[in-house]
Amino acid sequence: MRLVLWCAAAVAATVRGVGAGKIYAAGSGQDMMSLPETVAEIMDLSGVASPHLLYIGTATYDEQAAKDTQTHAFTDAGCSVSTLDLAYANATEQEIESAVAGADIVLVSGGNTLFAVDRWNKLGVPSVLRHALDNGTVLCGGSAGGIVWFDGG
After folding, report:
1. 18, 99, 110, 112 — which has fewest CB within 10 A?
2. Angstrom distance (rounded) from CA 109 to CA 34
3. SS3 82
4. What is the DSSP string of 9-74?
């Protein structure tokens, strides 16, 4: 577990120096995003005392239980949380842009990576998230939520 924490922190520290982009990729979504140490590091990367977190649960088919598990530690630490459901909803590009623009942190669930990436491509999500990354929004997640930020690995 400590190795996974170190690896996630190393990715975050490495990306800090690249433009405004900050990515925190962890090996496990549900376990890692519930750890106080992980939450503190991600909140610190945002540079905001009480950041707003946007949860995107496409990889877990927007299931409420997965959201609750992966966001409760952020709520306990003082984050406000909103959700962008994309698994079955056909959100417009404007709705997606508005939701992402209001976030200091975007947390993507673990789960089915291929399903999430396919849905996002159909809805135009990647370009919106890239713009957010370029503007300083912290992008994070574990398992599938950590994989989606990269082209390969």
Report:
1. 18
2. 12
3. strand
4. HHHHHHHHTSTT-EEEEES-HHHHTT-HHHHHHHHHHHT-SS-EEEEE-GGGTT-HHHHHHHHHHH
